């Protein structure tokens, strides 16, 4: 079958393409922006990519068009599909029908940490010999690919609350019917499709409604929004993590790189890994709880975490030039920015830390999170914000109240000049964006040479 995917370079759709190819389909796709890491992964899989959405790419007609949620009415390819009556489906629906049906699905949902936690969980199962399938919205470095079918009934999926397609406004995760569900955390996000936090809580409750009574729901005790979701009705056993939870961590190092794991008060072992930050300790506890549900004892799960490598673009060290270390990070919400910088600060001590931040997510562009931005960067010594001409709100005015020395730039060149003016040997520079940021990482490394 020839499947054409519109919006193929999104992390979800690109992973879907990998699975469709593995199932034996002829897969092609197109996107407005074809950029790494997804474009390189797809080309390595032999998947033909087209830049742009010209209707000509759909002639001769494919057997099925999978339409990504980034596309809407008015897009020339979408209009062609509808006018010609071509068969089409959303990505989550295709995944549910052709990959997840009949499998033990382990879903990882939440505002933050989905990609990292689903990568951890897939790796812990792999390390335990369970050869799971997975679909992850990023490229886990333990696997070097974002999706695979796997050889067993177990399938780990990053379960996103974003909508499924222009014709299906339900959250993606409603399609997945997990048996094991991690609910990491829940804050207001995706201001382009949700009016408020209660609207997102309702979608999370739709997910909870689909989990069988023989399944398991895992969530931290510290998230009031998740508590409200569970109180709407839960027909599934629950395990909790964190403060007063059944799964707890006892920190042995302030940066979270070493900690003991306790389950119901009993020591299970010690995690010593390359990750930092309290958020990753929380991700690890949820991972161990989910892995135990499918038969991986905690000690074996901990052994897997000890050799876990992070996900590309999650505090990924991309270069070191004249003693200046550059990191690529995906953080695009004030909470994620704060926890990521806090983890790095605890690791590097008093070394200079420069954050370069692009407010690129739809919620950021709408200004939904702007009030949280000035305080989100307090662990940095210097912050460079990128304000493109089309941002639509006053970023400079918003961050003027930040206690950290701040510069707002409107071009990559001025960002590079600003970093060069302040960085010195021993400085750590974190570049934060949920997009390609115009190749800033490579350009900055070259400029520092």
UniProtKB/TrEMBL annotation:
ATP binds at residues 110-116. Keywords: ATP-binding, Cell cycle, Cell division, Cell shape, Cell wall biogenesis/degradation, Ligase, Magnesium, Nucleotide-binding, Peptidoglycan synthesis. It is an enzyme of class 6 (ligase). It comes from Pseudomonas taetrolens. It comes from the Bacteria. Residues 2-99 form the Mur ligase N-terminal catalytic domain. Reutilizes the intact tripeptide L-alanyl-gamma-D-glutamyl-meso-diaminopimelate by linking it to UDP-N-acetylmuramate. Its EC number is 6.3.2.45. Residues 108-291 form the Mur ligase central domain. Its cofactor is Mg(2+). Residues 313-435 form the Mur ligase C-terminal domain. Gene3D superfamilies: Mur ligase, C-terminal domain, Mur-like, catalytic domain, NAD(P)-binding Rossmann-like Domain. One of its GO terms (biological process) is peptidoglycan biosynthetic process. Pathway: Cell wall biogenesis; peptidoglycan recycling. Belongs to the MurCDEF family. Mpl subfamily. Pfam families: Mur_ligase (PF01225), Mur_ligase_C (PF02875), Mur_ligase_M (PF08245). It catalyses: UDP-N-acetyl-alpha-D-muramate + L-alanyl-gamma-D-glutamyl-meso-2,6-diaminopimelate + ATP = UDP-N-acetyl-alpha-D-muramoyl-L-alanyl-gamma-D-glutamyl-meso-2,6-diaminopimelate + ADP + phosphate + H(+). The keyword Aminoacyl-tRNA synthetase does not apply. One of its GO terms (molecular function) is UDP-N-acetylmuramate-L-alanyl-gamma-D-glutamyl-meso-2,6-diaminoheptanedioate ligase activity. The gene is mpl. This is UDP-N-acetylmuramate--L-alanyl-gamma-D-glutamyl-meso-2,6-diaminoheptandioate ligase.
